[in-house]
Specification:
Nuclear Transport Factor 2, Chain: A; 3 helices; about 30% helix
């Protein structure tokens, strides 16, 4: 995976702060998909609507990455958290994704919380 696609993943995977439609188009393939325990979206329009809905549900909150982007082949993973305006963490987790040949995101699967105990 190129450093350019890692940068794209870093920007879009954690940016969720007022993402414009053109940013989604630059970072995601047209058939890109996102899924987590509560949400799912397929394609640019649905991804944009999902981001807008999250901001409406959590006004003033910000996503921030809690790790670097770990990448190999066409796979990426990174930690993140959603923080309230006072800095309190509302939810945290990890995202695992696939990057297309052109460096854009093809899919992201989000997980909330810590990994289960063995």
């Amino acid at each position: 995976m190129s450093s350019q696609s890692s940068t794209r993943t870093s920007r879009c995977g954690t940016r969720w702060t007022r993402v414009a439609a053109e940013q989604i188009e630059r970072a995601w393939t047209s058939d890109g998909s996102y899924v987590d325990p509560l949400l799912e979206a397929d394609g640019h329009a649905a991804l944009s609507e999902m981001v807008t809905a999250v901001h409406q549900q959590y006004p003033g909150h910000r996503f921030r990455r809690t790790s670097g982007v770990d990448a190999h082949h066409d796979q990426v993973r990174f930690g993140w958290e959603l923080a309230a305006p006072d800095g309190a963490v509302t939810v945290a987790g990890i995202d695992v994704g696939t990057v297309a040949r052109d460096g854009r995101l093809l899919s992201i699967t989000g997980f909330f919380g810590d990994l289960p105990a063995a």
